[in-house]
Amino acid sequence: MGMIKNFAMIDRFCKFLCIPPSPDLMATFPGNPSMAQRIGRVLPTLTRSHRQMAEYVLAHPLQAATMPIDELAATVGVSVATANRFARALEFDGYAQFRAALVLGFEATLAPVERLRSKLSHPATAAGVFAAALDEAGSNIDLTRQSLDARSCEQAVNAILAAGRIYIIGFGSSAWLGGLLQRYLDRYRDNVHLVASIEGSSHGARIMARLTPTDLVIAIAYPRYFSDTVLLARRAYEAGVPVLALTDGPTSPLAAVATISLYAHTASQYFANSEASALAVIEALCSAVAHGAKDSIKAATLLAESVLPWLHGNHPGRLRPLASAAVPARRKARAGSRSAKAAK
After folding, report:
1. pLDDT in tens, 224-269
2. SS3 letters across 62-129
3. CA 80 → CA 35, 45, 72, 266, 296, distances in Å?
4. What residues does 166 pair with on adjacent strands?
5. Domain extents for the chain?
6. Which fold, 2-110?
């Protein structure tokens, strides 16, 4: 029963991230039994230490798949030799083959972990990491610019300008990108809504049911793709609602359910994605919308006037006095008080 519960949990996790689990809900070599079957078959013959390892692998398959042999052994509280013998007890040639089988089916999920592990294995200074990360962000933006499709850019801008209502879908880190997109578009378009909320995807499901072909859905998802974003975008697409996808490439699950797609290269050595190039595409899209929108100058002027009272500076409309202006005022008050005392 515990084994079934563990693998049902893995199945749900894969679906949540839009990653298809392997047929046995666990990794296998072609033609070989699943990991659960291997463990179940040899369980009666396993030693107590091997049973400890088996229980950990079944309860934490993703963590186990990312660990080198010494780390897994230390986590479970056994020796490295015991970990090797456990792999051979499951009919693998050794730990390397056991770990490779465990990883299969979770490659997309574990890729950022493996990249980070590789980077951390090489010494680097903080300044060196800064420089490398900035170089990587610049390279992503260059590749994104080079792969831009002019027709898609025009279609995306026209769809935004023509839409009656705009709904932005994005979960996880894409919710933050969606919030910035909503903030930019709100200057030039009415009825721009961010679907992400504390209620989660059920809020989006209710909204999707009310959309019409005159509306526009902008769906944002990068690896590792959230399945809720893909599901909501598919529902909109199947209902005849235009879908603009902001994603990483034609193989993205969003691309198949999009009317228009804009792609960003988001490679990162330290994270699942680099958000810099995704944000650059959003800023470029909103810049093009500003260029094509009617009364964009009027909108910018109204925005400037509305935020003026909250801006730092010595201007008549400010809400709060400047700190530098307050100091002379206090000095004058103290001087006036001293003069009054002297007169007495």
Report:
1. 888 889 999 999 999 999 999 999 999 999 999 999 999 999 988 8
2. HHHHHCCHHHHHHHHCCCHHHHHHHHHHCCCCCHHHHHHHHHCCCHHHHHHHHHHHHHHCCCCCHHHH
3. 20, 20, 8, 37, 66
4. 192, 216
5. 2-110, 132-305, 311-343
6. Arc Repressor Mutant, subunit A (1.10.10)
